[in-house]
UniProtKB/TrEMBL annotation:
Coiled-coil residue windows: none
GO molecular function, one term: phosphoglycolate phosphatase activity
EC class: hydrolase
Pfam families: HAD_2
EC number: 3.1.3.18
Pathway given in the UniProt record: Organic acid metabolism; glycolate biosynthesis; glycolate from 2-phosphoglycolate: step 1/1
Example GO BP: DNA repair
Protein name: phosphoglycolate phosphatase
Length: 205
């Protein structure tokens, strides 16, 4: 029994948690003329429909380039395979688009691990709790029977807003350098830590 092995379903963020698409958010902001410090999607909401469409074209080009070069974070495929063997359902909640998410997951041959994938077109995006609550509704699980795993503050905030436990995965960085660590139920610095939190019965990956 591990800290989270009793949970019935696992919800992952995609980029930075399972895959690395190397998106250069600073370059994207610069090309779109957006300011730093505020997430891109929130800034697009402030624009007129015409400006927004123009920015979404730029965003889509960067995201598809990221999907084309994306790699699986080392060990994440083994983690997914181990969790899949246990039979607990897994889902993805991402602020990425449906097209780039599907392309990324199928290119890396990990799409079969997830029975629900929720992208930004599907509803209010993180930190809104909508996606987590929608997944719980479809799985027929209580919200405290799932966990949200992500590498960013917005992932953890969405879990807090939904009322489910969360794991912040820092990908090797000290937790104090990662925003959201203070809000997370658990922090996993390395993928092995994540494995030990989530997967019972096996020593390591
Ligand atoms: Mg992420």
């Amino acid at each position: 029994m591990t800290a989270l092995s009793h949970l019935r379903g696992i919800i992952f963020d995609m980029d930075g948690t399972i895959v690395d698409s190397g998106l250069d958010f600073a370059a994207m902001r610069k090309e779109m003329g957006l300011r730093s410090g505020v997430p891109i999607l929130e800034q697009l909401n402030e624009l007129s429909p015409g400006e927004r469409a123009e920015m979404e074209t730029i965003l889509h080009r960067h995201e598809m380039a990221g999907a084309d070069r994306a790699t699986i974070i080392d060990g994440a495929d083994r983690l997914l395979a181990a969790l899949s063997d246990e039979g607990r359902p897994m889902a993805i909640v991402t602020r990425n688009s449906t097209e780039t998410t599907a392309h990324t997951l199928s290119r890396l041959k990990i799409d079969h691990f997830f029975d629900i994938v929720i992208c930004r077109e599907d509803g209010p995006h993180k930190p809104d709790p909508w996606a987590i609550l929608e997944i719980c509704r479809r799985w027929r699980f209580a919200v405290d029977e799932v966990v949200m795993v992500g590498d960013f503050e917005l992932d953890i905030q969405s879990a807090v807003n939904a009322g489910c436990p969360s794991v912040l995965y820092t990908e090797g960085k000290p937790p104090e350098q990662v925003p959201g660590a203070d809000l997370a139920t658990h922090v996993a610095v390395h993928l092995n830590d994540l494995y030990h939190l989530l997967a019972p019965g096996q020593d390591s990956i």
